[in-house]
Amino acid sequence: MIFNDVLRSIRYMLDLSDAKVATIFKLAERDVALPEVANLLKKEDEADFAECGADVLVAFLDGLIIHKRGKMEPRPEQVAKKPERRLTNNAILKKLRVAFELKEEDMHQVLALAGFDVSKPELSALFRQKGHKNYRTCGDQLLRNFLKGLVIRHRGLPHPNPPPKGEGEKA
Fold this sequence. Notes:
The protein has two domains: 3-69; 89-155. 51% of the residues lie in helices and 0% in strands. It contains eight helices and no strands.
């Protein structure tokens, strides 16, 4: 998926100003000037569009986790993780799950809001280690629908496919 789309979706979902986006980058110890933020948020066909690299999106997502949950001090026995070399949709999904403190049930609800149902085994396979026999790659369509569901959940937008009225409900 295009990293700029992820950045724009999160910005829209949380109704963040350019200054707030820059502040979130700063939380992950990455300085991004306001003009650069504006260029990252532009569409591909607009003048001064800047492509969002994996390192930039990782910094934003890490800053988002700190923004939403607070800074976590590492435990003494904890080994420092190496930063991701190649950002995958699975890693983006994991970081969003952590930032928004989503449990498995929440993940299913978010995907259902976007009209995209995934079974429990399919969802858990997305969070396995890459070498695991049940690991599955998160496709662009799933990530796009997950972001769409998060937007619906956080902005209170109406459900695009409301469930049919039950027999006991009034029309």
